[in-house]
Write a structure and sequence with these properties.
The complex is a heterodimer. By secondary structure, chain A is an alpha/beta fold. Chain A contains nine helices and 26 strands. Chain A has helices at 15-27, 49-53, 69-72, 133-144, 158-169, 190-202, 299-313, 385-392, 416-423, and strands at residues 7-11, 32-37, 75-79, 83-87, 92-95, 100-102, 105-108, 112-114, 127-128, 150-154, 173-178, 206-209, 213-219, 222-228, 233-235, 238-241, 245-247, 263-264, 276-278, 283-286, 293-294, 326-331, 334-340, 351-358, 361-368, 371-378. In chain A, strands 3-2-1-7-19 form a five-stranded parallel β-sheet. A five-stranded parallel β-sheet of chain A has the order 9-16-10-11-12, with helices on one face. By secondary structure, chain B is α+β, with helices and mostly antiparallel strands. In chain B, 20% of the residues lie in helices and 26% in strands. Chain B has helices at residues 16-24, 31-37, 67-71, 98-102, 136-140; strands at 2-6, 47-51, 54-58, 77-79, 86-88, 109-115, 118-124, 146-150. Chain B has a two-stranded antiparallel ribbon. A two-stranded antiparallel ribbon of chain B has the order 2-3. In chain B, strand 4 (77-79) and strand 5 form a beta hairpin. The mean pLDDT of chain B is 96. The chains are: A alpha/beta, B alpha+beta. The A-B interface holds A 19, 45, 47-48, 51, 57, 60-65, 299-300, 303-304, 307, 326-330, 335, 337, 339, 381-386, 388-389, 392, 408, 410-413, 419, 422-427 and B 3, 5-6, 8, 47, 49-51, 54-56, 58, 61-67, 69-75, 92, 94-106, 108-109, 151-152.
Chain lengths: 427, 152
Amino acid sequence: MNMGVKRYVILGNSYAGVFAIEAIRKRDTQGEITVISREPYHVYARAAIHEYMDGAIDEARMYYRDKDFYDRHRVTTLLGSTVAGISPRESSVVLDSGQKVHFDRLMISTGGVPITPPIHGSEGPGMFTFTTWDDAKTLRDWIKGRKGARAVVIGGGLIGLQCAEGLKHMGVDVTVVELADYVLVKALDQIAAQRVQGWLEENGLRIVTGDTVESVLRVKGRVTGVRLKGGGRLKCDTVVLSIGVRPNTGPVEGSGIKVNRGIMVDNGMQTNIQGIFAAGDVAEAEDFLRKRADVIPIIPIATMQGKIAGSNMAGERRTYPGGLPQNAFQFFGRSVISIGNVIFIDKNDGFEEIVREEGEVYRKAVLKDGRLVGVLSMNYIARMGIYNSIIRARMDVSGIKDRLLSDSFGFLDLPKTFRDEVLTRPG
Amino acid sequence: MKVVYPREQWCVACNLCEVACMTEHSRTKDPLKAYLTERPRPVSRTKVEYRPPLAISVMCRHCAEAECVEACKNGTLTRNEETGRIELDQDRCLGCWMCIMACPYGAIGQVAMHVGGEERRVANKCDLCPDRDVPACVAACPNRALVFEDRG
């Protein structure tokens, strides 16, 4: 080993990995960085695969960083390589090929994998999952090869609905089957979710709620439909399984790295083993609002964790401020943004809701003991990030409740001390 | 690096910064023509808030660790390592609005863009007027309520 030159190894090639690489290179221009990913692609926009599938965006807009990103940052890539195991004792990662890659600092950012419960008849052609670029290409090619395709999407979460919209744009007859009483249960309240459901139905999607697929029906191996638990049947030739994603902790099995739901990390993004870090959808780190560890699989958290892990791997001591759940998404041209806690509201526990409904616009703020903890907005999303800073500041907004959700809400509604602090310092 | 800072005690909500910004980012560089004839119509990248007697103009801070860059789905928003500026490549933008959700200044807006025959909505924010020494909004402000400064 070349003394003094640190070897950094990053497992996974997505949002967290890119920010870790950029953070490492800010502080360490000499170290060797290796990225290992089972996917063969240059780093791409995983969150846009539904738009790639239906042709809304081309390949060029799918790449997350320039083609020369790895060269400029002097990164060695081992793409298309699967990790067989990690040995903390030997400080090495073993690949399926038998190749060993040694590290001084390791970051595990292997993302999530689709949850695939055993469903009778699910083995065989016509079944798909939808989390990778290859998934989107495979499904697109399958649909292009058949006329009058009919698809059942199992799961009305964000991935399932985005896939369903993509399929609809491709001319497919789509039914979404969701076990809960309404779609997007983890992201939205019931009113907002039912509005989204309305947008989808207006555009020709069918949504079945409160039911799930019991078995996939096949004739001579070909999918002909699904049977629902409630007794109904739906005819189809294509089934997409999108009931959820779980942290991809397979690569750390047997390594001694502690896993709860995801890989457990401290507030420096380090696992229980010194020198080994985790970030992104595989990591279980502090939730800013609930002050306990959780997996929050969203881009801004993956990138922030990657940045902090990378900085600390390169010798800094940065602290993760905790992740704030948030998401922005659109269906058929209409927008939703939600930040913080907009769902778990116990009015006996100091929670208060402020709601504004006006035609297509639905906005809601959630206060806990007077402090803003969540905000949701549909069809009016201008300057939503300001609420992000208010929640982060744990600001008491009980005095400005009447202004909080107005269209012209802004810095002038906030205390002068806050405004001066935020607007007169470098960003 | 130098960015634009508002000085709210001097702002009188004359909105000339917004006019100058819209004009600078128009094809004709003429405020009336830009507003009346250009389609899609150019949009100001600074936002004047007005609550009499208070007023302030707010735009992108080009943050050292920009939350818009951290939230962007496909690398449309990046930091230029040489200039430090946060750059937005509208041709790449997916219109996912993750940046609008993330920006703590509320400084990212939307603008229409024609691509081929279709209209697409993309993100829009201050680029510090790369063709000018002093950004158009700062030059247009009659009261020095906007300043172009390096505050470290």
